[in-house]
Design goal:
alpha/beta; 6-stranded mixed β-sheet; 2 domains; about 15% strand; about 300 residues; 11 helices; Isopropylmalate Dehydrogenase; 5-stranded parallel β-sheet; about 40% helix; 11 strands; single chain; Rossmann fold
């Protein structure tokens, strides 16, 4: 079981060497992470983009491009289609966003001819190692699905549970988060949390334990759960997955953790045929590295 990113990196070292295709690779923070990922044995890369600009950035980073396949395609849209097709055709194991806008990048992911669509809804998973928490926390969805329906939430759980399994967590505890831990008809997210719990009990959602609604303190703090009489719940301060009611709640928690707490984190897009690394310009070098490692572990599980 991976309890932190050091454990995750150890899992990567036990996997076959993976390859990441980068769309519009002339991006300094991304190339810096790609260089480190190769040096640490996490993954190799195929760099697709403007070859002259890629070389210019690589020179700045003292990055020797002789160890990489570089595909020259100055047009951003064409570069993204070429990069994603490498993953679609099995020449690479995961797909990473470079210096291209998110909308165009996602269009390539969903391209009917060369993309990575599966027919399932796409969702985002952020994996956190938080100081003081003795296991990884999986936050979803904090960046992609805005106002998920009940069916969307079921798909988000299924997408996230597959990531948990890849990280060595065989039966993750999934907490649909709300402001309260009781069902209130005036609070629709609590009604949906109860419905998701019932789906899990009825075998419609498998591979995990779902218990909701749960307030945040009852989901992640055992002492708070005991004080609030939650010791009889299936989840009592020991949730692995925090399922948020909408993107606002998820994104606020994500940014609070990243800016105010001592954490390590990595993120991927799921529901795709292969892991998609969709990091933000503001994400740290370490976050980009961790995201590549997380994608490598998920890619291994898909083999």
């Amino acid at each position: 079981m991976s309890k932190g990113f050091d454990d995750l990196l150890k899992r990567v070292s036990e996997c076959s060497r993976k390859k990441v295709a980068v769309a519009v690779a002339e991006d300094e923070p991304v190339l810096e992470a790609i260089k480190a990922a190769k040096e640490q044995g996490i993954a190799d890369a195929i760099l697709v983009g403007d070859e002259a600009k890629i070389k210019e950035v690589a020179d700045k980073l003292n990055m020797d491009l002789s160890g990489y396949e570089v595909i020259n395609e100055p047009d951003h849209i064409q570069a993204s289609l070429k990069a994603v097709s490498l993953v679609h055709n099995g020449q690479a194991d995961m797909y990473m966003k470079g210096l291209i806008d998110t909308k165009s990048f996602l269009k390539s992911v969903l391209d009917k001819e060369v993309g990575l669509r599966t027919g399932k809804p796409l969702s985002h998973v952020a994996v956190f190692e938080v100081k003081g928490v003795d296991h990884l926390l999986f936050l979803t969805d904090v960046a992609f699905m805005t106002y998920p329906t009940l069916e969307d939430k079921k798909a988000i759980i299924e997408n996230t549970v597959s990531v948990c399994h890849a990280c060595g967590i065989p039966n993750p505890k999934v907490a649909p988060i709300a402001a309260v831990e009781v069902v209130n008809p005036k609070m629709p997210c609590t009604v949906e949390a109860e419905a998701l719990t019932k789906m899990n009990e009825d075998g419609e959602i498998t591979g995990c334990i779902v218990d909701g609604p749960l307030s945040m303190d009852m989901a992640i703090d055992k002492e708070a759960a005991a004080h609030k009489g939650g010791t009889g719940r299936k989840i009592a301060g020991d949730a692995d997955v925090l399922l948020f009611p909408d993107i606002h709640a998820g994104n606020l928690v994500y940014k609070t953790l990243t800016h105010l707490c001592e954490v390590k984190n990595g993120c991927i897009l799921t529901g795709t045929a292969a892991p998609v690394i969709l990091t933000s310009r503001s994400d740290t070098f370490e976050t980009k590295m961790n995201s590549i490692a997380l994608a490598a572990v998920v890619a291994e599980a898909k083999n």
